[in-house]
Design brief:
Elements (H helix, E strand, L loop, with lengths): L2 E3 H8 L3 H9 L7 E3 L2 E5 L32 H4 L5 E2 H8 L3 H9 L6 E2 L6 E3 L1 H14 L5 H10 L4 H39 L4 E5 L2 E7 L8 H4 L15 E8 L2 E12 L10 E2 L3 E11 L5 H16 L6 E12 L2 E11 L2
Antiparallel strand pairs: 1-3, 2-3, 4-6, 5-6, 7-12, 8-10, 8-11, 9-10, 9-13, 12-14, 13-14
Length: about 350
């Protein structure tokens, strides 16, 4: 008879040599014998069945209380008279003390109190209710919404689920817009770190002017000239404002705040106003909100660049606030500046 070692047989059976040795010790391999420290196994021995696992069914033992009694199957839960303490709930259902107290506070659960100790006592019905609450919670329902479902007795589950699906889809759209804004702001900050105070030639996209007013501090104009054109759930005020300043070689001439919106193309019909788009001298500036020298510095630097590169300006500069750093009682603003070129 041909024999193989435990290592050789382990490769054939695709198990560990330690498991082969265990089978040999347990007498599960007919004809296996030990020689010194090595197990020798008949080459044609069959691999023992591993009773630790079942690949085709769940092992369910017989319950003598059932035995054909069809109506008794649910009584195993409904007739469970066990009483559980709060610690049992924390440990076995994964709930925190604060969550359980909140559920009780809003009336989602109403556990009984022990007459002597006044400790909360939970029945299996309470446990079942907590698992049902968790079912809805994991599908986006808030505890208060779950309470409303309980009180309304609404049996039209499809309507409730459809409403939550719509809410979830809307939240996803909102988060996608926030993600886009975050990414755009991050790109600007990375660009600003490398390009601050440098001049380049860049195209200004087309912006439609919705309204104008005198200054950022003209708060009384905001309701009609800013908020009226905004989705307050989506848009922030700073990103929609642009300071437009007119100038010539002698200095600045006038200034207006413009409430703007990106446009795809100019509309000829009607009296619509747009920022001067196209080729511009572009730079990024940063200054705290109390720095009054930034405009003067920009003026001389821009004219120095224009003289060096033989360029002329159209006489207006647009200043966008692209990022704000909060520090103490002041802000540090990062401006993107476009000066249209002739």
């Amino acid at each position: 008879m041909d024999y193989l070692t435990a290592n050789e047989m382990a490769q054939i059976w695709n198990i560990s040599s330690r498991m082969v040795a265990y089978y040999c010790k347990a007498g599960k391999i007919a004809g296996a014998m030990k020689k010194g420290k090595t197990w020798l196994i008949p080459a044609h021995a069959e691999k023992p069945v591993d009773n630790r696992f079942s690949t085709n069914k769940v092992i369910v033992g017989d319950n003598p209380e059932l035995q054909g009694e069809l109506h008794k199957i649910n009584r195993m839960d409904s007739e469970n008279n066990a009483v559980y303490r709060a610690n049992d709930i924390y440990k076995n259902l994964g709930l925190t003390r604060e969550t359980l107290r909140y559920y009780e506070e809003i009336g989602l659960i109403e556990p009984q109190r022990n007459k002597n100790s006044q400790y909360r006592e939970f029945t299996f019905e309470d446990v079942s209710r907590l698992m049902s609450i968790d079912f809805y919670k994991k599908r986006g329902f808030t505890p208060l919404e779950i309470k409303e479902l309980m009180e309304s007795g609404d049996r039209d589950g499809i309507t409730s689920l459809s409403r939550k699906i719509n809410e979830a889809e809307n939240n996803i759209r909102i988060q996608q817009r926030i993600l886009k804004r975050l990414a755009e702001t991050k790109v600007f900050c990375e660009y600003a770190a490398l390009s601050s105070k440098l001049f380049t030639v860049k195209e200004l996209p087309l912006y439609l002017v919705l309204e104008t007013f005198d200054a950022v501090s003209s708060l009384n104009d905001y309701k009609d000239r800013v908020l009226a054109f905004m989705d307050l759930q989506e848009d922030d005020i700073l990103s929609s404002l642009v300071r437009a300043v007119t100038f010539d070689q002698t200095g600045y001439k006038g200034t207006k705040m413009c409430h703007v919106r990106r446009a795809v193309k100019k509309v000829q019909a009607g009296e619509k106003t747009y920022l001067e788009s196209g080729k511009c001298l572009h730079t990024v500036l940063e200054a705290d909100s109390h720095d009054d020298s930034i405009m003067e510095k920009m003026f001389f630097a821009a004219y120095g660049w224009a003289e060096e590169h033989k360029e002329t300006f159209k006489g207006v500069v647009y200043i966008f606030i692209r990022f704000v750093e909060l520090s103490g009682h002041t802000e540090r603003n990062f401006y993107e500046v476009f000066i249209p070129l002739k």
